[in-house]
Specification:
- By secondary structure, the protein is mainly α.
- The chain contains two helices and no strands.
- The N and C termini lie far apart (about 55 Å).
Length: about 70
Amino acid sequence: MPEDTPRDESPAPEEPDWKRRLRLAAVFGDTMPETTSDERDPEAGAATPGEDAGDRWLRAQVPPHHGG
């Protein structure tokens, strides 16, 4: 680009925070949960009917990054 060509130096319009978050979530997904594990109901991970103690133990051993 030649030096004598004028550049558009006007700043970009300010993007609202909610719009920026929506755009980033569309690209990267929602990476942060709304609540942390200590805020959630501990009974939410309770046993389902027909599940024995061995199944509960096995599910408790699955690391979080493996869909646990």
